[in-house]
Amino acid sequence: MASALVELSRYEPVEKKAKKYLEIVEKIIGNLSSGLYMAAPGTNEGFLLKHSVGSMINKEEIDKPVTYADYYFIEAMIRYKQLNKTSK
């Protein structure tokens, strides 16, 4: 969600809304970077995020390391960093 909100903020014509999207992104990235969700180096089978969920409906990959959770987390951080570089 954070990655998509960064991208959406680039296309939002109302600056106030775009800033709100980025505030949410900062909160999500901040929370995921905290000790509650970010795994310590050498733990969690090498995955970055703990407590990921693949499919709650199908009761699969609940509270497990999930490759695409790490992928979208990294993508969100890269998009956010690039957005900040271009806005300076």
Polypeptide structure, described:
- This protein is mainly α and 88 residues long.
- The protein has one domain.
- It has helices spanning 2-11, 15-32, 67-86, and strands at residues 52-55, 60-64.
- Strands 1-2 form a two-stranded antiparallel sheet.
- Strand 1 (52-55) and strand 2 (60-64) form a beta hairpin.
- The protein is elongated.
- The mean pLDDT is 93.
| Residues in helix, % | 40-55%
Number of strands: 2
* Uncertain parts: none
Task: Return Rg in Å.
Answer: 15 Å
Secondary-structure element order, N to C: HHEEH
Q: Order of strands across the widest beta sheet?
A: 1-2
β-strand percent reads: 5-15%
Number of helices: 3
Please indicate the count of domains.
1
Q: Strand count, sense and closure of the main sheet?
A: 2 strands, antiparallel
Report the end-to-end length measured between terminal Cα atoms.
24 Å
Gross morphology is: elongated
Mean pLDDT: 93
Structural class designation: mainly alpha
Index terms:
single chain; 88 residues; mainly alpha; two-stranded antiparallel sheet; 3 helices; 2 strands; 55% helix
How does the SSE layout of this entry go?
Layout: H1 2-11, H2 15-32, E1 52-55, E2 60-64, H3 67-86
Antiparallel strand pairs: 1-2
Helix pairs in contact: 1-2, 1-3, 2-3
Quick structural summary:
55% of the residues lie in helices and 10% in strands. With 88 residues, the chain is mostly helical. The protein has one domain (2-86).
